[in-house]
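Reader question, answered in our methods column.
A reader sent in the components of a multi-part assembly and asked whether the whole thing could be modeled at once rather than chain by chain. We filled in our standard form and ran it. Here is what they sent:
COMPLEX SIZE: three components
ENTRIES:
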Amino acid sequence: MLAGLRVHPVFKLVVQRIALGLLLLVAVSAIIFLGVEALPGDTAQAILGQSATPQALANLRAEMGLDQPPLARYVDWLGGIMTGDLGTSLSNKTDIAKAIGQRLGNTLFLAFWAAIISVPLAVLLGLVAARYNGRWPDKIISGVTLSTISLPEFVVGYLVLYFLAVKWQLFPSVAMVFPGMGMMERLNAVILPVIVLVLVVLAHMMRMTRAAILNVMQSAYIETAELKGLSPMQVIWRHAFPNAIAPVVNVVMLNLAYLVVGVVVVEVVFVYPGMGQYLVDHVTKRDLPVVQAVGLIFAAVYIGLNIMADVISILANPRLRHPK
Amino acid sequence: MRMPISAAIGLIMTGAFFLAAIFAGVIAPYGMGEIVGGVWDPVSDKHWFGTDAIGRDMLTRMIYGGQTTIFVATAATALSFITGSILGFTAAVTGGWADQVLSRLVDLVMAIPSLILALVILSVTPVTLPVLILVIGLLDATRVFRLSRAVAVDITVMDYVEAARLRGEGWAWIIFREILPNALSPLVAELGLRFIFAVLFISTLSFLGLGVQPPLADWGGIVKENSAGLVYGIPAALIPAFAIAALAISVNLVADWVLGRTTSLKGGRG
Amino acid sequence: MSRSLLEISNLRIDATAYPPGEPPKTIVLVDGVSLTLEKGKVLGLIGESGAGKSTIGLASMAYGRGGARLTGGTITLNGREIRLADARALRSLRGREVTYVAQSAAAAFNPAIKLIDQVIETSLSHGIMDRAEAEARAVMLFGKLGLPNPETFGTRYPHQVSGGQLQRAMTAMALCPKPDLVVFDEPTTALDVTTQIDVLAAIKDAIRDTGVAALYITHDLAVVAQVADDILVLRHGKKVEYGPTEQIITAPGEAYTQALVSVRSIDHKEKAPAEAVLSVKAVTARYKGTNFDVLKAITIDLPAGQTLAVVGESGSGKSTLARAITGLLPPSKGEITFAGRKLSPQLSGRSRDDLREIQMIYQMADTAMNPRQTVGTIIGRPLEFYFGLRGEAKRKRIQELLDQIEMGSGYIDRYPAELSGGQKQRVCIARALAAKPKLIICDEVTSALDPLVADGILKLLLNLQAVEHVAYLFITHDLATVRAISDRIAVMYRGEVVRYGQKSDVLAPPFDDYTDLLLSSVPEMQLGWLEQVLKHRKMESAGN
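And here is the structure of the entire assembly that came back:
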């Protein structure tokens, strides 16, 4: 009966893109688990140190299941993750899923506010830069953008911390959050990291928004609209906007994916109890199960945002939406 | 062709950073690990940038730190360019399954944020300079691969490349005489961007404590060492932070200029 | 004083150029041009690329494209000077009094909006009519312009209809708000020749029926002669000649206009059939990963030292034939014999002599030469590669070749970017000649050039053929070019040769349907040609 159903081709494309994304995610999980196996370095040795006896090493390996073939352990690991079991931390023998729960919430809280502020701001500034292309507002925005792109996240972090928290004492310097904290308190605590994240993604997002809008504004159909005697607002609203949505949304999604990386560093700068901090801590402790689980979560978010960007592009493309 | 003032400034600053790195041993006033003053002594005649968290001369640390940062970044950039561009060109010119395999592999690696993948790798491998260079260089090579493949694909479909093939020219002539001269400008501009990326990457890793390990130090590490002082209003950590930004901006100015020249250049003598 | 619809006097238009690495400089696009257009009349603006014809057309809407500035003179529309009018005044006249039809309708329509909404937009936004009225008028215009299913045509999106249909829809869009003047900017140039004639006729009818005045911009004098009452000939932004169409066509006053009128009138006598240098036998080919043949059992012969023109529209497979002969697309069936030996289907299986003796010249000379090599290197490489010439000997030979293409040795150290379009194509010819070939495949080599320049290239090719005794496989969509250069003709349609033989036979009746359509669609430099053709076609279809 399926043949009789008329499936819209866009639906097919979207399903294809999502399936491809899931496949990619599985491949990424394989890299994170199996690729790491191939690297030089021995987990058991790392835990017990150089002075460990061969017997102790063998015992530990057996205990951790390291004597099993890698493929079997991978399938086991992936199966666990599917059912919400992220494994046990090596360093403190706690359940990783439990440890992550609270932190994931904290990280999402931070990223959420950074996104809420940066997206409208970037789109607005990108519009302004495109509107005044080549004139002073554009030049100022481009100049500032160039400098921010050249700064690593932690430098932005410390600059903000030094001036806003220490010199002018506007905000708390350490972003302490804990369960049971009120919403306003919580917001007050994350102001600095949010500012830093906004600065970090703003520049890229603005630059790409500007380029996307300029690209649309230089199309022949915009000239057609101008030659129809439409007002600038009509030209932008009726003719530029519908075509600019897809590229701009795409830009926004890609930059939100970039937030994923920014959040790791910013959490360390402000000692914020989130996923990034947790990841870095356990890399230092060489706690592989934690690193793999958290790494996979970050990668999944990143891939998910990329899929969303593609899906939105597909949905917004009139050629695909209205096939011949 | 005249160089715009911003590019000239960028070029001079970049040159100064590299010279300081090369002659670090000659120009540094003190030894790298030498304790010569108190904790976070302020700026003075003896210590132009003050001293650090345990009383070492900040200027000396900065010069040696710059040497490490620039060395790691340069080596990683070289590695990423050599592997990325050779594989990218090969994929573009030969096409077929080699292209497919390489391209899908690169897609896969690029589907994971670089920093996250680096952290996963560094949680297993020993953290030494060669490993850092290898990790940064190879992760970055994926981007060079994409660019050089795209550039080369654009050129291989040109009629003049077809004309060379119809003439009976070998691969060497086609790659080195027809493709490379036309691909050079975008690749040079990309070189600058990749170098900046490598500087930011190694600094970030060191700042997280997963990059250059003591007794060596790079700028990112020096930020980390002195970051505790910030809360007490001691800005020592901002000095290496500014250095990273200054180096990145200088290289960016030069790269922007090269890129601008490329796009406005439609086959002239450039 | 009779009040004209549009009066332009002494117009000057400037733009600023930004050559890389040099300070910006002002360039003059249009200088001292005057014209007058009465209500309901059509004025043709004609000239080569860079003549400023589109710029003048847009100036009638007081619009400067890409930073062009209307710096001098007056533009009077309906009695009002508009060159210095403010933005609000311009908005009220654009779309209400003057409308515009662009060369590429495919790019000029907004991909995200339905056709009907774009067509009636101007009428609504200027308050000329209400939606129902505008839609009714649009449907009427769709019908008048010969669009299929006028009632529902507008519900589609631009990418859902063909190029010729879009061009008609754009004309409907321009006519919908009942303007006084329509600017047609090369409306048929991007179309295939058989489509062009229909669109041209539709535009002409629509102009006549609505009584609108028009500025008709084109580079093709034969086309403009069919629609215009007056013609203004332009060159380098200046007026060359301005007069009634009949006078311009039959008694041009200026040497440049004479050249334009007599273009494509190269007289080439067909050579008698002789032994073939190239024989293509039953060649069938398809592209990898597709499931249909782009070439279907092609059989043609090309005698040594003669020209075989392969003519057809886009998608006919004519360029694919060239790829099969050069070895870039190995045929799945059939064989190719060249100079008495069987050619390997694959490029890699061919000897160095095979490669040397078949040379190729491309449509776009720009992309056919490495921009990083000098003219000397470009021409010198085949000399070095095939004949091992070096140093002085090579330089001397390059100079000979440059003389042969009438360029002189001063160009030896120039880069392609420093040459004009015609010169670039000449260098490509010299590169082909350098290999001392027996066959040169010319793929649309004159299509991208202005008519006079193209004429020069054709003459050069004919002269070279007489001296070097080289055969040409000449691929083109332009029948005038075919007449000028060929001894033999193969007409291709959808991958097949539908007509083949000596020029005099192919171009003489009785014709097959496709060749008839193709031949009768080529605009001729005579008044009333369009009407004749259409009448002829109507009679034929009535007879059927």
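What stands out: The mean pLDDT of chain A is 82. Chain A touches chain B through 51 residues (CB under 8 Å).
Send us your own complexes using the same form.
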